[in-house]
């Protein structure tokens, strides 16, 4: 019986950008948020890929905020990716949005104001206390059930724990709540009030000695 590949987590390099975009596109294709963002089944995969090319490729990978889980020791294939914001990154987010706004306008066209309003509503629910924020985490469907998401999550949480900082995320699926609870997250509310899908707010208190 062949042994399952080992997941090694490391910072994403610029050379990983295409693999990150491909992996996150596959991971989020059927996610409720991306079904809302891109309701046309025929074009969702293309538009989701364009979104991650902007979001990850132009912003988070170059800024060093993306980690990847790769197979070891042989192929180095990207199997999952996670995007984390430090407390400092959270404060800088509005400026970065301005820089990428023309690309989002090209993607969303007339829907952009609607998308921005919904995302701003979600952002306003974030805790005021400084924290690390798990913006996105996704596993390639072919690698699900092989510990990829757990490896990515442990890596980011170790960084937050080293700084004795709490961690926050929003889950778009109620099915994922139990997974995050295994890592110390607690459900702290729901985000509703717009036509945006319901989001589940989760908070992990500061850990560490």
Can you walk through the features of this model?
The chain has 209 residues and is α+β, with helices and mostly antiparallel strands. The chain has one domain (6-204): Aminopeptidase. It has 7 helices and 7 strands, in the order E-H-H-H-E-E-H-H-E-H-E-H-E-E. The protein has helices at 17-28, 32-37, 44-60, 87-108, 112-124, 148-162, 177-181, and strands at 6-11, 66-72, 78-85, 132-139, 167-171, 186-191, 199-204. Strands 1-2-3-4-5-7-6 form a 7-stranded mixed β-sheet. Strand 4 (132-139), helix 6 (148-162) and strand 5 form a beta-alpha-beta unit. Helix 3 runs antiparallel to helix 4 (87-108). The longest helix is centred in the middle third of the chain and has 22 residues, at 87-108. It starts with 5 loop residues before the first strand and ends in a 5-residue tail after the last strand. The mean pLDDT is 90. This is GNAT family N-acetyltransferase. InterPro entries: Acyl_CoA_acyltransferase (IPR016181), GNAT_dom (IPR000182), Trichothecene_AcTrans (IPR052523). Residues 68-207 form the N-acetyltransferase domain. Pfam families: Acetyltransf_1 (PF00583).
